[in-house]
Design a protein that fits this description.
It is a single chain. The protein contains six helices and no strands. The radius of gyration is 15 Å and the shape is globular. Helix content is 66%, strand content 0%. The N and C termini lie far apart (50 Å).
């Protein structure tokens, strides 16, 4: 399934940015570089009209819980703006903000 239509599914830029914040802050964990790379390619796909990442690539590189959430987002984008808002709320409840533990560790060692 091509993902080139996703950039047209948002109510406005603010809704798209909110979705991108969830993907970036709650799904793309750089402690798993491969998964993070493909989630960030998906993040970029939300803006671009060309193919940045495919569903096949996502399914091969993203873990099941996050892949399920991404698939739900794609469905919401193709359904309605209200479904996108509901997706944002649900994803924020399930996935906490990823803390940069590497940065925190360096900061704590400097004290």
């Amino acid at each position: 399934m091509p993902l080139t239509d996703l950039n047209n599914g948002f109510r406005d830029d603010e809704q798209r940015r909110r979705v991108q914040r969830v993907v970036h802050d709650r799904l793309a964990d750089d402690r798993d570089p491969q998964e993070c790379r493909f989630l960030m390619r998906f993040w970029w796909q939300l803006v671009m009209p060309y193919q940045e990442v495919s569903m096949n690539q996502l399914s091969l590189n993203v873990g099941k819980p996050k892949l399920d959430v991404i698939e739900a987002l794609i469905s919401a984008i193709r359904s309605s703006h209200a479904d996108i808002d509901a997706w944002i709320t649900a994803a924020q409840q399930v996935f906490p903000v990823i803390q940069d533990r590497g940065f925190e560790a360096v900061q704590n060692n400097e004290r």
